[in-house]
Amino acid sequence: MTLKKTLHLHPHDNIAIALQALAKGEADAVEPIPKSHKVATRVIAAGENVLRYGQIIGKADRDIPTGTHVHDHNMSMGAHVAHFAAKTACHQLPKPDAQRTFLGYHRDNGRVGTRNYLGILTTVNCSGSVARFIADAAEESGLLDPFTNVDGIVPIFHNTGCGMSHRGDGHDLLLRTLAGYARHPNFGGVLIVGLGCEVLQLADLLKGQKITNDGNLRYMTIQQTGGTRRTIDAGLAHLASLAEYANAAAREPAPVSELVMGMQCGGSDGYSGFTANPALGGASDLLVQHGGTSILSETSEVYGAEHLLTARATSPAVAEALMDKLRWWEDYCDRHGAQMNNNPSPGNKRGGLTTILEKSLGAVAKAGHAPLSGVFDYAAPLTAHGLVFMDSPGYDPCSVTGQIASGANLIAFTTGRGSVSGYKPTPCLKLSSNSELYMRMGDDIDINCGDIVDGTSLDDKSAEIFEAMIATASGAQTKSEAQGFGGVEFVPWQIGAVL
What we know:
Helix content: 25-40%
Strand content: 15-25%
């Protein structure tokens, strides 16, 4: 079988994607074209829009002859202001023929976890080392050995919590994030450790949450407990009690509607927008059809594709909420001397992506075709089901941290360049956009979407991802979990002055 060497994604496009490295004279190329990069299919005049997916991804900076390489040496983003598309379609997805279930941990508050960890949360960087000392001591002593239903201990430390205002965005973001982790269904028990004198006080974090000697949430401060050694001893006693509590939980059937999936793409390439991302979008649609929730985030990576989301918002208020977030980002970047088009990383560009518009159009494919039912602040509790949007930076660990705080009990992460990360307490499935990456980094990638180029249908790949989601939610270990990732990827979004 002769495989295509280029792919023309839309009839209106004036570029094609090289499916392999093209030599001069190959597939009408007049110069070498790297794999997954763009090649002009006709003359593109200086100032003319460059089109991919039938959408504008930038403009030609000079005349671009047919068959030549189209990239940042001859095209740029051009002027762009986030724009609103009038609502055109908000069709509800059809209900599935049969409801699916997974095996999860049913919590007292009605939520369902996909893992059963013990968490050690910290209010401030000053208590981070002690939290790690407690976790290390528990591991060295074999504290969890008798408790076979407990997946492990996850110490959560960060570099803030003090030296900040006691009000405003910085304080509120951290408070929401920690509160979201404290009530996360993937934790069977949580111990919160503070220093005692920090700006972010335990009383603020624990407001409204039930604290009992026999429940799943405990807290202490180092200053009140009597220093490091006594805090470690007290922490071990708390963990032993929490382990006994958490160990009583067992996996039981739960409807797929209890799954909340955070979607990410990082280290993208020219394939991401027509292989892994739309395949994940199809799996997201399947989850939404079953009553579950998918979270799209990375606000700076929907810039230029926002009109595709506002056009299917469930109400004008939802569409306007997304536009408000994008306007905030435009102002935020302007105030700090940054540009939205700074987002594509060097790795993204080596993979064939040129502008944020091009990256965003591919990234939004993760959203599938479901209606957009809600827009939420970073780390805020979700009050809507279906496809929702959570505001966040494009920096993957920071974005995932917010999604988990908002309740994600499953993460799906597409990559075209390669990603090595995990996000305890939530399992993360990695999807490669191309087969070469899967062959090269197979110990880190769970599913190869590169075979879509070879003829595997998007529907079949979406179904494969959906089945992997259910298996993972039911306890199947992901590649990142097998590698031991998840200890350093807690990265709350930090905004505001350090005082």
